[in-house]
Amino acid sequence: MADFATMLWVTTAAGAATGLGALPVLWQSNFSHRTYDAALGLASGIMIAASVFGLIIPGMEEGTLTTVMLGVFIGGFALLVANRLLPHVHSVYLGWRGHGEETQTLEEASPWRRATLVGGAITLHNAPEGLAMGVAFAAGLEEAAFVLAVIIALQNVPDGFAFAVPLGATPTGRLTIVALTTLSGLVPQVSAAIFGFAVVALATGIFPIAAGFAAGAMIAVVFRELVPLSHGHGYADEATAAFLVGFGLIVVVDTALVF
């Protein structure tokens, strides 16, 4: 089992990488839909590749296909249930409408409502990844945990950009946007990693199902939120191309880190 301090600094670094995606907002507040959709496509490709190469395959190496796929289905459907219970922060930020979705803008929301929107979004997007990292470290799978942390850090950058751009359209200060974006990845990922690390102390052999759970949740996020949002403004080709670049990037990174 890796020591707690190692797990903590690695997951902290991975979570804080979200803030790097907000840095362009310091110089420019408005970005085209082409750029925003491409960023969503890039994050989607990285998340799908991370689910396969960083979670599902390592999970099957430590457990059985049945266990991992059980986790995938539990994680995916848990995300869909949570998606029904929590509002969609991206669509609220940008004023987009969807079936049964809130159309109130962020500026019109009360402070409590605003906190619910942001808190729900960051938990849905980042907690499963933190859980997987914490469980991997606690299970003694340091190599898989480090690879996963690098992959998640890479994915957090375009995800942070996608989170920060809508905030840039509000009166929120630029440095505050960077801070909030950083916390949106840092807090849920580190908290979930600590939880996952502690769980392994009580239940050994949990990594395969936890890895499947995280993968299922990430895949559900991509197809339920990121893909629809990136294909609604006439730039589906750009988003798809960025998806392929993101997927290919993780294949290269995973191969380089393993070998």
Number of domains: 1
| C-alpha end-to-end distance | 22 Å
β-strand amount: under 5%
Contiguous uncertain segments of 5+ residues: 89-107
The average pLDDT is: 80
| Count of helical regions | 9
Number of strands: 0
- Shape, please? globular
What level of helicity do the residues show?
A: over 70%
Major pleated sheet = none
Radius of gyration over C-alpha positions, nearest whole angstrom: 17 Å
Structural class: mainly alpha
Taken in chain order, the helices and strands follow as HHHHHHHHH
Q: What brief labels describe this structure?
A:
78% helix, 259 residues, mainly alpha
What does this structure look like?
This protein is mainly α and 259 residues long. The chain has one domain (4-16, 50-232). 78% of the residues lie in helices and 0% in strands. It is built from 9 helices and no strands. It has helices spanning 4-16, 33-62, 65-85, 89-94, 111-138, 142-168, 174-202, 207-230, 236-258. Helix 1 (4-16) packs antiparallel against helix 7 (174-202) and helix 5 runs antiparallel to helix 6. The radius of gyration is 17 Å and the shape is globular. The two termini are 22 Å apart.
